[in-house]
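queue> pop job 88
queue> type: inverse folding (structure -> sequence)
queue> payload:
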């Protein structure tokens, strides 16, 4: 059980995510999501060629 005044890993992650969202906005998440999806697509195509 977390000590008083300390954050759990989940709480810290949520707090960090909200801070990034506030600073950079929704388009930032859309852009990194798009980049991630493109990379996964490339990796799948590469794996199928093997």
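queue> result:
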């Amino acid at each position: 059980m977390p000590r008083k005044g300390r954050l759990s890993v989940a709480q810290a992650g949520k707090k960090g995510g909200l801070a990034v969202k506030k600073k950079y906005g929704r388009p930032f998440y859309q852009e990194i999501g798009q980049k991630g999806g493109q990379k996964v697509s490339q990796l799948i195509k590469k794996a199928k060629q093997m």
